[in-house]
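Handout, tutorial session.
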Amino acid sequence: MDTLEYIVDYNQVANKVAMRKETLFKQIEADVEAMIQSMSPSQTLSFRITDRFGRTQNVPMAAEKRYAKVIWCFLRGNDYEKDGETYKIESEVTVPIINQVEKTTIAFYSSPETRNCIATAVSEAVSTSSIVRASVGSSADEARKAIQKEVASRIANHALSDVKISIVNQVTDQVISFMNTSMMQQIVNAVGTCVTAGAGKILVSKIAIILSKSISAAALKTAVMSIVKKIGITTIAKTAIGKAVAVALATIGLSANAVFFIVLIPIIAYILVHEYNTFPEKLSKKVPTQIVSDLRRNFDTMNQQIVRNIMSELSKQIAAQQRNKRLLPPSKANSSKKTIVIAIIILVSLLAIILVYIWLF
């Protein structure tokens, strides 16, 4: 667990961001539609085949056997085979559309609106956190006991066996060190002030301002990008594009029902004359809807992973800040160690003085 996760439930933050998902979906639809409409008819009707070594070939639309067989295999969901080699098929629009979906998703999570949404969600969690509350108006020992109890509870929920007290003490010290950073002390002070005044909404607003200043747009963009590239958004978009292209092709007469690919050649010739220039418009109405439909089913998983990465980045940024003077004590184990070391140093010094005295006299 991140240190911040002992104070903030990341799932609550993800749920808050999820409330803005319709904004993301609408933007993806608009961006993808605009991209497809800007493409040439040739690009929207062309295909790319890839062999087992990753080498690609472009297959432009033409009323000839090769194109007819490629599109026939594509519509049937099969690979294209030639001279004993098997090729994967995808529409020429697939890669640029996937890049646009990723770009729009990254822009959504990196936007000031989402950053403020995250800051508000975190501030709401922090304002009610038992660890933060323990740091307000309590003695150092009382605060440590309260933090230790919360840490033990959180660790127990994630552990598969009994938790050793040494681990709890270690994590408690880690959380205390985290609480002593300048930002967390600002938050603690805000909590103390607003609790006294009974101003809950003002508290959330104050903490949100503190946090939004600390979540840099660049760091947030990097955190989002690393997850977007890893998770299955490419697979989701690629599958959606394939389905949408097949549906759009069916509207102009190209269907998987043809028994042989040869029969598609005259249909292709007709399309080149009568449907060629209008196909980008037809495709732009099918692809965005299909992508958003598929993303909806996978959004919660994607969103939780992205928000978790953002929160981990925030936790690192807070932990990296210069610590203020310790407002909470380290563990008694650490204090005991320091006491022993000091005692040894004093003892060695006394022995040295005695030896010098004996040698001189």
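The second record follows below. Compare its token runs with those of the first.
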Amino acid sequence: MRFQAALAVALVVFVSGCSMRTPHESLNAALEKSFRAQGYDYTSSTRITKLSVSHDKTDETDRSAVYVDKGLSILRSLSLQAKGSVDIRQARSEALYDLRYAQNNVEVSVRVPLMADYENRVLYIGNSFLNTLFPMRPEDEKKLIRFDLNDTMMQSFFPEDAFNASAFRSMNRAIQEGTLKGFAEMNGSLAYYDAASGNIRVRLDHDDSVGWFVRFSDAAIVRLFQDGVLSKEEYGAYMILSDQKRISALFERFVLATDFEIALNRSGRVERVTVRLDISDAEGSFMAGIENTMSIEHYDDPHFTLDPEKAGTVHFHDVVKNFEMLMEPVNTLDKIFQEPADVNDALGVLPSALKTHRVL
């Protein structure tokens, strides 16, 4: 009986030991499972954690240092928030971008709701600063502004071979494969469970950071080339980013440090990722730090908030035309008062001009 009990205990311990994953293995499994999803919702927050440039403070005649410090102070007060959804199957995405400035009791927020339909090559912008810059007709005020990327003018900014459903899906695959390779091929001992939070942490020093970047770039560039997003010439040019020696030489004057913190949900998928990147030069005269936190939910069930069919749309060309019509009375008044031959003639023309353009 004792032998059987001991054997049972040994078997349980053996099975449990085999099923236990290292932090590195748990991270890789969670990433693979998360990337299999064809859609999700996310919130993202990016801020500058540190930013400084040393200069000679003994030279009181050099006023440029004051402006440099003020500029850095403004940059440190900026942050970018985003809340959006991604649907890989239908090749569309949306995000509410929120650029914020907060300093000295001054808070400014500029929000831009943006939706991209890669299948039909259309961009939609919700109520934003464009409604302020370009006054719209009352019946169009709540509609989404539509940008048709197939228009000749827009194609120069959004070429068809780079902005389409196939390129969108390929870019997502490139990011997925790059991320998987970056973590899978690193030294597994670099991943550990954080005692305070229970999350998986990965802290990379300079060499490990460069190595992660090179592995990510290599997998991503190969994927984009295989999918036809990059031409043979572009592929050759971008492959420098996957050259360990060249990238190491490029960053030899700098010191890099990267910190990943990954939280998993109950289903074993990634729930939140925080990335902290610090960079400085070898002399310490320049230091910068940036932090991004992204939370992900509703895997395979993204919740879009912008609905072009329900809200209605108005083409950006029509918005501009309406703005030009509203400006016609102002342009007429400018012409009247530029060089009037006679003041009485100008005053005589003014009422009729205002009535023509329905100002009076």
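Points raised in discussion: Confidence is low (pLDDT under 50) at residues 1-19, 353-360.
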